[in-house]
Amino acid sequence: MNGFLIALFLIIITIIILLIIYIHLYNKINESIIRIEEAESRIDNNLRDKYDLLNRSISLIRNKIELPQDSFKEIIKLRSRKISNFDLDRVLVKSYNEFLSIYEDNSKLRESDEILKVSRQLEIINEELLTLRNYYNANITNYNKMIKTFPTVVVANIKKYKERPFYDLKDMTDEDYEDFKL
Fold this sequence. Notes:
Layout: H1 2-64, H2 73-78, H3 85-105, H4 107-111, H5 113-146, H6 152-159
Helix pairs in contact: 1-3, 1-5
C-alpha cells in the first residue's frame, strides 16, 4: 500500500509540474500575441490617419492646381472597398509618393500652409509606421520561432497557433509567393 501511495504522489506531482510548465509556455506565447495585436492596432490607427490626410490633401491640391484625371486613382478607389492593412499600406505608400511628387514639383503647393501642415503630419505618421512595422516584425519573429521550437511547439499545436506573415510591404496580389516572407 505504501508503494502505491508513493507512485500516486509522484504521478500527481508530475502532472502538477507539467501543468505549470504548460501554463508558463502558454502565457509566453500569449504575451507575444498581445504585443503583435497591439502593434497591429496602432498600425491600423496610423493607416487610417494617413488615409484621411491623403484624402484631405487631394481636395486641397485640387483647390490650388489642376490635377491629371488619373491622379490618386488608387486611393480614390479605396473609398468603396475593404482591404487588409497590408494592402492598404501598399496603396497609401504609392499615394504618398504621388503626393510628394506633386507637392515638390509645384511651387503653389509648397506655399500653402495647409498642404505644408498635411505634409508634416504625413511625415510623422510615416516615421511612426516604420517604427511600428519594425516592432511588429520583431514580435512576429519571436512568435514564429516559439511556435516552431520545443517546448512551445507543443502548446502551439494544442492551441492550433499558425505562423503569421511579416509586415514587409511586399505585393501579395502577384504570382510571386516568395516575396511575402513567413
